[in-house]
TrEMBL record:
HAMAP family the record matches: RecD (MF_01487)
EC number: 5.6.2.3
Any one GO molecular function term: DNA binding
Boundaries of every UvrD-like helicase C-terminal domain copy: 711-758
Catalytic activity of the protein: ATP + H2O = ADP + phosphate + H(+)
GO cellular component: exodeoxyribonuclease V complex
Protein name: RecBCD enzyme subunit RecD
Additional information: In the RecBCD complex, RecB has a slow 3'-5' helicase, an exonuclease activity and loads RecA onto ssDNA, RecD has a fast 5'-3' helicase activity, while RecC stimulates the ATPase and processivity of the RecB helicase and contributes to recognition of the Chi site.
GO biological process: double-strand break repair via homologous recombination
Function as written in the Swiss-Prot or TrEMBL entry: A helicase/nuclease that prepares dsDNA breaks (DSB) for recombinational DNA repair. Binds to DSBs and unwinds DNA via a highly rapid and processive ATP-dependent bidirectional helicase activity. Unwinds dsDNA until it encounters a Chi (crossover hotspot instigator) sequence from the 3' direction. Cuts ssDNA a few nucleotides 3' to the Chi site. The properties and activities of the enzyme are changed at Chi. The Chi-altered holoenzyme produces a long 3'-ssDNA overhang and facilitates RecA-binding to the ssDNA for homologous DNA recombination and repair.
Subunit-structure text: Heterotrimer of RecB, RecC and RecD. All subunits contribute to DNA-binding.
Length: 779
């Protein structure tokens, strides 16, 4: 089930039935708001009052009506809806799709609006309208153009899109100019970068350097050998479902490195643990080696960035580990054989910044310090978690990149798209599964990597963008004996590959299989949820969660709940110390508490109601109080500060050096105004982790934190870019538009070692996994 029509990579409309008035059977007279501006404004007013339309959308309509009093009401209506789509992640309004399913164009409450005197639904208003009439109303040179110009709106007919294949298909998209411009920037920037292949000098070194970097081929097969460790599931295992299918011979990581090194624009996509970070670190070593062979004293200036502070911190950690394992000495030997002068050391940066910082975000403006006129001083930019980057930010980054710089995007194309408009990575990677490498690329790859490409991935019609994308297909974190990996794979099957029923059966089969890292809980009583959040319900996992090891043969600690960090908080508290005299003792304590917190996180889909963040936070706080793990009145637990309160930062605060997505824990430290160590006299401070080993904790007074929320429950949207050892994903009892395949996939892949999938009512998961988010764009 899809909620809107969409377009393919080249701007062609995906075939949809001709627009039909939605109530074609009965003769209906046209709604007045289609022809009368004051009726339309009144209608918008009523929609805004119900929360179906935003104030912002109505303001745009008013502005346009004032600027052009002769503008047809139908045009103004289209503008209101186009503006509204931005708040829902779409870059533009697709007129055809809107006529096919008008009620998707507004934010209608999922379970209906039971207030009296509801305003007319879009399906009633648009019932008589045809696509032709609507298109005709858009002919207004002051307000709408079909491309460059100053009009506030831009209309694009799909058959005028790049590389149109189906002239007959009609699709009309209406953009607010700014968003049309972002899309143009992306098209142009990416196309230009794809034309310019990277410097060919010293490319003869490429195959040799790749061989050095991927010499440890055992790597690829290594995970298989470890399966004996989990031999309790070996016997039952259905090998046909294996994630290792087809993946055994081709080293996709090596392929990714080669392709990304060849082009000024590259994408490496893959699910969790497929080695995106591992690959990019090798890519950087490769690029640096090639550069130093060419210019021994001029190493590449490499920058690493991620969309959120949390994602940046995570990449920072994993990159640092990976850089240490690079075969730098062998690369330097190779380099010395190729270079007449002594080259610089092969240095790979490990510091990761946020995109906002990289571009020099300035308060109160959407303009950045670095832009086309003042480009970034770098040669290579790697952007991790690129699925979270919206179209506006992606356009800003590409504009600020020097023409010769190389840009590499990393991310999981199947994850939820950015909160803001656009699904850039998903759009760009729509053909990644089948690769579509041309015979020329295949030949080049074979000589660069020494691996012949299977025919299934070769396509003489492959497009330039296809040649710059590699999809990593082997999970090194979740092997075929991992329920988390199997569930992610079953959920992620594209809808064209199987029917809804088949997908549901595949998901059910994984849930019933009895994997050691997966527990499926249907709530029949409240106590089960309480037990989960307190203890993690380890007893529900095979062998109580004991005895598992990871792919490095290290023991995996059994799953926990929130009791774990609260116990750490009490057990590790520095006693008899003063906060001022011995800050290190408090830093160590806070660090341990924060690490313990990262062992468990409850995720949910909604914000409001008993199954949303708001209801769950209070409920969990009270449950933990009942266990004497937290203290405070109902009012304090709901609205105040108390020791143990975990908080999530919801907006960047450059003054406090806190980023959207950071998690801190409230701790009671001795009050400096009382005598050192006097028991009972304490102050609350919130401890946040930093990336500075000298000063691992930032202590902040609660009164200084304005954009935080309790995070016993976190929405899946907010959890992007994070991972937790034990993740519990809670689905509400009724289906809701927000519950989609992408949401469930993103939620379950936040789990590193353990996943508890909680259904408030059996069946919601089955429905959710067959619903896909489709974002409208012209990408
Ligand atoms: N070829 C390989 N053989 C064996 N282990 C590997 C291989 N590639 C990566 N790994 C290991 O798998 C784990 C995940 O790798 P990595 O962090 O690079 O994946 P990722 O795709 O970046 O993960 P994430 O989902 O966290 O973004 C790491 O422990 C890494 O060392």
């Amino acid at each position: 089930m899809k909620d809107t029509q969409t377009f393919d990579l080249f701007g062609d409309a995906v075939e949809t039935p001709d627009a039909q008035p939605s109530s074609a059977s009965a003769p209906v007279s046209a709604h007045l708001a289609l022809s009368d501006t004051s009726e339309l404004l009144a209608l918008c007013e009523r929609w805004v009052a119900r929360g179906w339309l935003r104030d912002l959308d109505r303001a745009l309509v008013r502005f346009l009506a004032t600027e052009a009093p002769d503008a047809p009401a139908l045009l103004l209506l289209a503008a209101a809806l186009a503006s509204h789509q931005l708040g829902r992640g779409h870059v533009c309004l697709d007129l055809n799709a809107t006529l096919n399913a008008p009620d998707f164009a507004l934010s209608l409450p999922p379970e209906g609006d039971d207030l009296s005197d509801p305003p007319p639904l879009p399906s009633e208003v648009l019932a008589t309208l045809t696509l032709k009439e609507w298109q005709a109303a858009l002919h207004h040179p002051l307000l709408v153009s079909d491309g460059p110009g100053n009009t506030p709106l831009v209309v694009v007919n799909a058959h005028s899109g790049l590389g149109a294949k189906q002239q007959a298909s009609i699709g009309t998209r209406l953009y607010l100019r700014r968003y049309w411009q972002y899309e143009q920037t992306l098209h142009q920037q990416i196309a230009t970068r794809l034309e310019a292949t990277a410097d060919e000098a010293h490319r003869d070194l490429l195959p040799q350097a790749l061989n050095v970097l991927f010499e440890d081929r055992v790597f690829e097969n290594h995970v298989l050998e470890n399966h004996v460790l989990e031999n309790h599931v070996l016997e039952n295992h259905v090998l046909e479902n294996s994630v290792f299918e087809n993946a055994s011979t081709l080293n996709w990581q090596k392929t990714a490195c080669a392709l990304a090194a060849r082009s000024r624009f590259g994408i490496i996509t893959g699910g969790p643990g497929t080695g995106k970070t591992t690959t990019v670190v090798r890519l950087l070593a490769l690029l640096q080696t090639l550069q130093l062979a060419h210019s021994p004293s001029q190493p590449l200036r490499i920058r690493l960035a991620a969309p959120t502070g949390k994602a940046a911190a995570r990449l920072n950690e994993s990159i640092a580990g990976q850089v240490d394992s690079l075969p730098i000495a062998q690369l330097e030997t190779l380099l010395s054989e190729h270079s007449s002068s002594v080259p610089n050391e092969i240095a790979i940066p490990t510091e990761v910044t946020t995109l906002h910082r990289l571009l020099g975000a300035r308060p109160d403006t959407r303009h950045f310090r670095y832009n086309a006129a003042n480009p970034l001083a770098l040669d290579v930019l790697v952007i991790d978690e690129a699925s979270m980057v919206d179209i506006e930010m992606m356009a800003a980054v590409l504009r600020a990149l020097p023409a010769n710089a190389q840009c590499v995007l990393l991310g999981d194309k199947d994850q939820l798209a950015s909160v803001e408009a656009g699904s850039v990575l998903g759009d760009l990677c729509r053909r990644a599964e089948a690769a579509h490498y041309t015979p020329a690329t295949a030949q080049w790859l074979a000589s660069a990597t020494g691996q012949p490409l299977p025919d299934a991935y070769i396509d003489a019609q492959g497009q330039p963008l296809d040649q710059a994308i590699t999809m990593l297909r082997v999970s090194h974190r979740f092997d075929e004996y991992s329920g988390i990996g199997q569930l992610a794979q079953a959920i992620n099957q594209p809808s064209h590959a199987q029917s809804d029923r088949e997908k549901q059966q595949a998901v059910d089969a994984v849930l019933r299989h009895g994997y050691p890292d997966l527990h499926h809980l249907t709530l029949s009583e409240d106590a089960a949820l309480d037990k989960l959040v307190i203890h993690g319900s380890a007893d529900k996992f095979l062998n109580g969660g004991e005895g598992r090891t990871n792919h490095n043969n290290e023991p995996i600690a059994p799953p926990t709940g929130y009791r774990h960090y609260l116990k750490t908080l009490n057990a590790q508290r520095p006693r008899g110390e003063s906060f001022e005299d011995n800050p290190a003792a408090f830093d160590t304590w806070a660090f341990k508490v924060l690490s313990a917190y990262s062992h468990f996180q409850l995720l949910c889909a909604l914000r409001k109601g008993p199954w949303g963040v708001e209801g769950l936070n209070l409920r969990i706080a009270k449950t933990l109080r009942g266990e004497k793990l937290l203290y405070g009145s109902d009012v304090t637990l709901e609205k105040g500060w108390y020791e143990g309160r975990p908080v999530l930062v919801t907006q960047n605060d450059y003054g406090l050096k806190l980023m959207n997505g950071d998690i801190g824990i409230t701790l009671a430290v001795p009050d400096p105004r009382s005598r050192s160590g006097t028991p009972g006299k304490t102050l609350l401070r919130v401890a946040f982790p930093t990336s500075d080993p000298e000063k691992p904790i930032r202590w902040v007074l609660p009164s200084r934190l304005h954009a935080v929320e309790t995070v016993f429950a976190m929405t899946v949207h907010k959890s992007q870019g994070s991972e937790f050892l034990h993740t519990a994903l809670l689905l509400p009892p009724t289906i809701n538009p927000i519950l989609t395949r992408e949401l469930v996939y993103t939620g379950i892949t936040r789990a590193r070692d353990w996943l508890t999938l909680v259904e408030a009512k059996r069946g919601v998961l089955n429905e959710a996994v067959t619903r896909e988010v489709m974002r409208v764009s012209g990408m």
